[in-house]
Design a protein that fits this description.
Order of helices and strands: EEHHHHEEHHHHHHHHEEH
Distance between the termini: 139 Å
Strand order of the largest sheet: 1-2
Strand content: 5-15%
Radius of gyration: 49 Å
């Protein structure tokens, strides 16, 4: 051990006499000998950057995952051109097992974002090469969407380049396959040659008809006859005013002309304009209504009520019935009972009739 100074624990800054000098000290002193600085292992290397705590930015608290984790490359997690929603949905899709449903409706039920935001994020992932959606036909003839997720876009390109191209086999004739060797040209019987047929003698088929290469245009809609303003003014005002109840029920002038006869049929069957407007504009679907005219046309056609009968089945007073009898107080037992006039209840009358003959 190298020589050093002896220090007191009471005051670490106070230096006492060196050991072996025999100089007495006052009080109890626990001596601690410091080694010589040159005997200690010194290192002039700078500490690693991983061990230093950064002054700003994020600090990672590491944890080793043994189960329930997903390996995601930085090319996706730190993509420069993908939005935050697209990166989040991409990480979520990569964490799912094969066969999981990742449609727009399924992702909307899982996340808070709407269908428009999720659809835009899926298009970003498709453009970046991570996602591929194809429409395929199932065995029963039903169309389905086949979704493929590539963990790295470069792997998708390598798979597409290394995939073997299917070879087309020439068609074979089964009857010719089992036949014997072909006879020589000299041994073959010559077939009778038919006289040449002129253009006038040949029948005209579908292939000989001239083909119209001009793109067929949609025929222009014929204008509708004008509406009788005096008769259908109520129907026109009702349809035009539906947008006051809901801005999504905005109709064009042509839609109003088409739907006015159906509205007139409801009015002719005794349905008032207020009740009809409440029926057409009530319980509408959530979200955007792309074609409000079709929705109203369906309701006017399918919800048309039957016509009212010419005469009611019963008179109004018969439907309401007679009013109940008023309450009366019994003169004998003072109980309440219903009767047209004051008197005694049924029990008191029965007791009086039974006691009369006995008396």
């Amino acid at each position: 051990m190298g020589t050093g100074a002896v220090r007191s624990r009471h005051n670490p800054h106070t230096t006492t006499a060196p050991a072996g000098t025999g100089i007495p000290d006052e009080g109890l002193i626990i001596k601690e000998v410091d080694t010589f600085p040159m005997t200690d292992a010194q290192s002039s290397a700078r500490a690693s950057a991983r061990t230093e705590t950064p002054m700003a930015g994020v600090v990672h608290v590491r944890h080793r995952h043994d189960t329930h984790f997903t390996v995601v490359g930085n090319h996706l997690a730190q993509h420069l051109h993908l939005s935050a929603v697209a990166i989040g949905i991409g990480v979520y899709i990569q964490s799912l097992p094969d066969g999981a449903l990742v449609g727009i409706k399924d992702l909307t039920r899982r996340f808070r974002e709407g269908e428009i935001a999720i659809a835009r994020a899926l298009k970003e992932l498709e453009a970046a090469g991570y996602l591929e959606r194809r429409r395929v036909r199932c065995a029963g003839g039903r169309m389905a969407t086949l979704t493929s997720w590539y963990e790295h876009p470069e792997h998708r390109e390598r798979c597409a380049a290394s995939a073997p191209r299917p070879r087309r086999r020439p068609p074979t004739n089964p009857a010719r396959r089992h036949a014997g060797p072909a006879p020589a040209l000299a041994d073959r019987p010559s077939a009778p040659q038919a006289p040449p047929v002129g253009p006038a003698d040949r029948p005209v088929g579908p292939a000989d008809r001239p083909v119209d290469l001009v793109k067929r245009r949609r025929p222009v809609d014929t204008p509708l006859p004008p509406i009788d303003q005096a008769t259908d003014r109520t129907a026109v005002d009702l349809l035009a005013g539906l947008r006051r109840r809901d801005p999504r029920l905005l109709l064009s002038e042509r839609d109003v002309q088409i739907l006015a006869p159906d509205v007139r049929a409801w009015l002719d069957r005794g349905v008032g304009p207020v009740q009809l407007a409440r029926t057409l504009g009530g319980e509408l679907p959530m979200g955007v209504i792309a074609r409000p005219a079709r929705l109203l046309a369906y309701r006017l056609r399918e919800w048309l009520p039957p016509a009212l009968p010419t005469q009611p089945l019963e008179r109004p007073e018969q439907q309401r019935g007679r009013p109940p009898l008023p309450f009366q107080t019994c003169d004998g037992c003072e109980r309440a009972f219903r009767a047209a006039a004051p008197g005694r209840c049924r029990d008191c009358r029965t007791a009086l009739s039974a006691a009369g003959p006995a008396a």
